[in-house]
Amino acid sequence: MKNREVAAMFDRIADALEIKGETGFKVVAYSKAARILLDMTEDVETVAREGRLETIPGIGEGLAKKIVEYLDMGTMSKYREVMAGVPETLLGLLEIQGLGGKTVHLMHEELGVKDLDGLKRSIADGSLAKLHGMGEKKVENIRKAIETRERVAERISIGEAALVADEVIAYLEKAPGISRVSAAGSLRRMKETVGDIDVLACGKNGAEIIRYFARNPNAVRVLAEGETKGSVTVRAGETERQVDLRVVDASEYGAALLYFTGSKAHNIKLRGLAKERGLKISEYGVFRGTKRLASREEEDCYRVLGMPWIPPEMREDRGEVESALDGRLPRLVEAGDIRGDLHVHTRASDGSLSLGEVVDLARKMGYSYVAICDHSQAAKYARGLAADRLAAEMEEIEALNRTLKGFRVLKGSEVDILSDGSLDFPDELLGRLDFVVAAVHSGFKKNVTERMLKALENPHVRTIAHPSGRLISGREGYDVDLDKVIDGAARLGKALELNSYYDRLDLDELHLKKAKEKGVKITMGTDTHFADGLAMMRFGLGIARRAWLGKGDVLNSLTAAELLGRKAAKKPRRKRRS
Ligand code: DGT
Ligand code: CA
Ligand code: CA
Description:
Blueprint: H1 3-19, H2 25-39, H3 44-49, H4 61-73, H5 77-83, H6 88-93, H7 101-111, H8 116-124, H9 136-153, E1 156-157, H10 158-172, E2 178-184, H11 185-188, E3 193-194, E4 197-203, H12 206-214, E5 219-225, E6 229-236, E7 239-248, H13 253-261, H14 264-276, E8 280-282, E9 285-288, E10 291-294, H15 298-304, H16 320-325, E11 340-344, H17 355-364, E12 369-372, H18 387-403, E13 408-416, H19 427-430, E14 435-439, H20 448-457, E15 463-464, H21 482-492, E16 495-499, H22 509-517, E17 522-525, H23 537-546, H24 560-563, H25 566-570
Parallel strand pairs: 4-7, 11-12, 12-13, 13-14, 14-15, 15-16, 16-17
Antiparallel strand pairs: 1-3, 2-4, 5-6, 6-7, 8-9, 9-10
Helix pairs in contact: 1-2, 1-5, 1-7, 13-15, 20-21
The chain binds 2'-deoxyguanosine-5'-triphosphate and calcium ion (2 copies).
2'-deoxyguanosine-5'-triphosphate binds at residues 185-186, 191, 194-196, 198, 259-260, 262-264, 267-268.
């Protein structure tokens, strides 16, 4: 049904007429026709085909002709005529809730408002409120609407974006005639923050898929709904997120996916390379002259450019194209390489899961071990365990392990690094643990570098949790020199954590890269407190891959026996009797 499309055209004509200063029956006729079309249950195309348009109350001869023109040609000359001369920036203001064409016209004429900045100034200096028909209350609503729009403009963490995108993609997979659908853009590249969410699809009828997309029950507003491109906003926590969908032909899916995955810098690099070779690359394919050499799969496009497929996480023009051309692309760590989660909380401290629940969830992830790292006593806010409670937990774990086959719970602790750099538990107790993560939870500004280095010197400490302490949602991290911590870890043969909780992702990709260069191994843990948290390993994995980490850089690729130390790893294997 094109009812909505035609209605949108009429609405925009009405808006544009108002911005141009027209009032009266003409404007009313267009917006009324738009409403009628939206309320109509019959398909406007059917009504038009049967010549019954003018029988609809509110649609006269003139409007009927325009509808027929649009259905036949896909354009409306009246629309183009009205739009001519209306500045984009003024039209853009109509997106703000509570702002109609009439108000925009008045603001423009009387206050000289040309764009959003001008509008904000007229709110701030009180001139908007004095405008005819305005008043304080209306202005306050407009001010709030602007705020909401600007919140949409902020970036969100990959974890929040993935939640939205997963839902949209699951919904789209049920679209009529859809054959492929994938995330693109920064989300597919697993960037730690995402601006808008890009989705690519192909299927039989693009317009139909986009109509279905726009009807997503989670969609707050439909920003665009066309033949090949749709755009909606979807609620994501406190904010709204823009989701862009493009639908392409199956024969061009790979080229489009490559283009819309980006990054822009990667695309530009490929374009330059293609040019050097007398080729051209675009969202439609790789061409020599007018001959299309590749477009169906990403692999095909890369191949005709002389290189293997490059994982999306690497596509930032940070040397990946050169490596690919030289056949030196590293093999990145994969989900299947991760044998366990090395930082999990239970309800013994501030988590919500029992030991048994953690084990069940870890097994569902396909793991063969998990390290329980509850907080230590100094972390009072987190119900940190005193020595006796830790000892009790260790006993509970040992008892549980005796009942488990092919799975091992590691006795661990997230032990606080105190203000003098000493640890919250005595060495004797730490020595009885399988896996010790040391963490700063207080004194964020006090000698953090020195304290971390001192903690790394303790023979029982394997790794430092969330070394920067930042939160992606906005908390500044510790006052710490991470380069020195990385050097210290390298010197002492210790690891550092990639905390994979979506709001941490700490170390970040830059420092992971530095750590790898210095030979420092990485431990990955989700730091989960909840049932759905173990699955966040995928975000850590994305960041690890963005830092070019391989299987060998990540201690989670070891077996539990290997992790527990050389002795265990070197034990001669008993020959299995057949
Ligand atoms: P974001 O949304 O800010 O987190 O970042 P992206 O990378 O998702 O960027 P976005 O949504 O503006 O565009 C999606 C992809 O489309 C981008 O990664 C590459 C491609 N693209 C967009 N604009 C351009 C452009 O001007 N040139 C080229 N070569 N590619 C572009
Ligand atoms: Ca994007
Ligand atoms: Ca986009």
